[in-house]
Amino acid sequence: MSELAKRGLSGAAYVIVMLASVYAPVHYLKILFGLFVLIGSIELFSLNARTEPDVPLWWVLLPLVFYFGLAWPIVDLSFGLVLTILVLIFIMTHTLLQQDLSSFTAVGRIVFTSIYVALPFVLAIRLHERFDFDGLPMLGGLYILVWSNDTFAYLTGRMLGKTPMAPKISPNKTIEGLIGGFLGTLVVAAIINLFNNNLGSVGWISLAIIATSFGTLGDLFESKLKREAQVKDSGYLFPGHGGLLDRIDSLLFVLPATYIIFDLFIP
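Above: the chain's sequence. Below: its structure in token form.
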């Protein structure tokens, strides 16, 4: 099978799974996101191990505990918070017994991974439970807008790109691509609103702005992590696309931004 065919099939499989998950019962979505947290944590630990002293790989389970403790609490939200605090205490106690393990490195890596990889999906569950509309749920629309931005930015950059946006981090990203991604995503948001007016035009346009601005920041941030680790891809989960973090890097910034903005301004 050619590389292009592998890239197309893996990309299509990812899109189908993501869109199908927003229509499935919410506990299936929570399990899917739990897998994302686990795989994303493994990839992030592997990237960080190239530049920092390594920590035990089984510690990737701890961001997973953080995720399930908050996204799927057994009793209530307070249980998830208590569980998270206990996990952090365990990590800090464990570092006291490891003479060759830096407490700053170990605790910092767990906290960073939990915030960067796990927390966005906790907030995604909260968004989905609040905006699970008939037709296209808000979370599904957000996926489409993020993918639209990536696609239009790539195409515009290839055809018209001349001005590098962040040459030291990602030389192929251009200002022209950024503008093309923004305009294309606005058009997609307007089309979604025509057939699925559950958020209103202001809501969908707001999501388009969030998807383009914070999605670009998320993409650049992950590119910086890979550049520091001197690797091209975060992993090999998706042939032709790289690892899971390469697929969800935009969402890791878009989801928290969406939650904050809609929690503050949408009654």
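DSSP finds nine helices and two strands in the chain.
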